[in-house]
Each structure stands twice: as structure tokens, then as C-alpha cells.
Specification:
The complex is a heterodimer. By secondary structure, chain A is an all-alpha fold. Helix content of chain A is 76%, strand content 0%. In chain A, helix 1 runs antiparallel to helix 2 and helix 2 runs antiparallel to helix 3. Chain B has a domain of 63 residues. Chain B starts with 5 loop residues before the first helix and ends in a 13-residue tail after the last helix. Classes of the chains: A mainly alpha, B mainly alpha. Chain B: Belongs to the complex I subunit 4L family.
Chain lengths: 170, 104
């Protein structure tokens, strides 16, 4: 058992434990905090896959930005202390369907292997990604900026209080 | 050379995807449904990065695609939360099973 294997094992265990806590906890804030562990563990998984830049982006965007924005969403809305459960039958049926999906996919992927090429993706990872982004993928990269602008303006307009509506309520 | 087989990464991604799917379908709180969807997107990202390293032609394409996916997911989270806050202002609820205006 190599060190890489042990690291993968612990990271995978942390990620799955965070997910299971998300399902089982009752307080919404605790659920989001449990998911931070999952996101950081997934960043570690990316490091074992020699994708350092993606790992840093994962820590920045997911454990930083998205978790905080979700916590804001929880704080800005009112909640019952305990989350009420859905009808038991529906939960069981959903679980059975997802279990079936899991088994089918497991059967397909359990011995999938393309053999290992000697890829050295970890050498100058960020630099290579930057060069690729600005040469081969420059049009999708610029389109992404448009998408982010649209999302920014759209979410401000959606979340902003409507002035006409306020006048009508008075 | 890595000692971890490709199937191990795919298994981890599959388990996380199933957890996210279960959370998205059974939780009543809309914030938790949104964050479960983020978990599913994360599982897909693990697949992309794993195939970038272990495919027949290893390369950076998978990693770059996962960067784009992360961007789109962030935009989706922001818009989803904005819709949630607008709904909360009008209906005073965040439970998905009470958001049934279009069914009535």
C-alpha cells in the first residue's frame, strides 16, 4: 500500500462522510458545514490526479464562495429549526431507484481501465492550462465572461425588491 | 505512474453523485436542494479530471473543461439563490413542496 493509496483512501472517506452527513443532519447550517469537508476532500483528490490548478480553484470557488453564498441564503430566509421529512414511502422509493442506478453504473465501471500512459500533467500545470486557455480555447473563455456578466446582472435584477410592487402594497 | 486505478476514482464520483441525487430529490429545503446539485456537479468534475489523466490520450482538455464547468456551476448557484430569495419574498417559504404555483 503506497502513500498515494492511503491519501486517496482518507480523502475519499472524508468526501463520502461529508455527503452522508449532508443527508442525515437536521440543522441546515450544519448540513452546509458538513459539505465544506466534502469540497476540500475533493480538492485533495484533484491533487492526487495531478491537477493542482483545478484543486486550488475548487478550494476558492466551492469551499470559499459557494458555501458562503449558501450560508447567506440560509441566513436571509427563515427556517424551522428541524427540517420536516417527506413521506416515508416516497423516500424509500427514491432510495430504491437511486440504488438501482448505482448498481447499473457500478457494473459498467468496476473494471474499466484504459491502461496508464506516462502523462506528466503535473509539470508546469498552471502554465500549460493558461497557454491552452489563451490559444486553443480562447473563444469559450471569452464567452464564459459574458455568461458571468449575464448571471451577475440577472441575479441582481431577480433578487432586487420591485419598486412598483412596493408602491402597490402601500 | 500512479498506483490508484481509474475505477477507484469513478466509484468515488458515482457514490458522491448518488448522494447528491438523493439529497436533491428528498430534501424539502430549497437551499439544500441547490447545494446537493453542486455536489452532483462536483462528482462529474472528478470524472472529467480522472479521464484527463487516465484516458488513452492523456491531456489537459479534461481539466480545462472542468474549469468551465465550475464557472457555470457558480453562475447557476448565484441565479438559483436569487430566484430563491425572490420566491421567499413573495411566498414566505423555502420549502420546495410548497412552491406549486404553476401546478394550481
Amino acid at each position: 500500500m503506497t502513500g498515494e493509496m492511503i491519501a486517496f483512501f482518507f480523502l475519499a472517506l472524508t468526501a463520502i462522510a461529508g455527503g452522508v452527513l449532508l443527508i442525515n443532519l437536521t440543522n441546515v447550517v450544519h448540513m452546509v458545514v458538513a459539505l465544506i469537508f466534502t469540497f476540500i476532500a475533493i480538492a485533495g483528490i484533484y491533487v492526487t490526479l495531478s491537477a493542482e490548478f483545478v484543486a486550488v480553484v475548487q478550494v476558492l470557488i466551492y469551499s470559499g464562495a459557494i458555501t458562503i453564498i449558501m450560508l447567506f441564503g440560509i441566513m436571509l430566509t427563515r427556517h424551522q429549526e428541524k427540517e420536516k421529512k417527506l413521506p416515508r414511502l416516497k423516500v424509500i422509493l427514491t432510495g430504491l431507484a437511486i440504488g438501482l442506478f448505482f448498481l447499473i453504473m457500478y457494473g459498467k465501471i468496476k473494471d474499466l481501465d484504459f491502461g496508464q500512459q506516462n502523462a506528466e500533467l503535473h509539470i508546469d500545470n498552471t502554465k500549460k492550462i493558461g497557454i491552452e486557455l489563451y490559444s486553443h480555447y480562447v473563444i469559450p473563455f471569452e464567452l464564459t465572461s459574458v455568461l458571468l456578466l449575464v448571471a451577475l446582472i440577472g441575479s441582481i435584477i431577480l433578487a432586487k425588491r420591485d419598486d412598483d410592487e412596493k408602491e402597490a402594497k402601500k | 505512474m500512479s498506483s490508484i486505478p481509474l475505477a477507484a476514482y469513478l466509484m468515488l464520483a458515482l457514490i458522491l453523485f448518488c448522494i447528491g441525487l438523493f439529497g436533491a430529490l428528498t430534501k424539502r429545503n430549497a437551499v439544500i436542494v441547490l447545494i446537493s446539485i453542486e455536489l452532483m456537479l462536483n462528482a462529474v468534475n472528478i470524472n472529467l479530471v480522472a479521464f484527463a489523466k487516465y484516458s488513452i490520450n492523456p491531456g489537459l482538455t479534461g481539466q480545462i473543461f472542468s474549469l468551465f464547468t465550475i464557472t457555470v456551476a457558480a453562475a447557476e448557484a448565484a441565479v438559483g439563490l436569487a430566484i430563491l430569495i425572490a420566491l421567499y419574498r413573495n411566498r414566505q417559504t423555502v420549502n420546495v413542496d410548497e412552491m406549486d404555483t404553476m401546478k394550481r
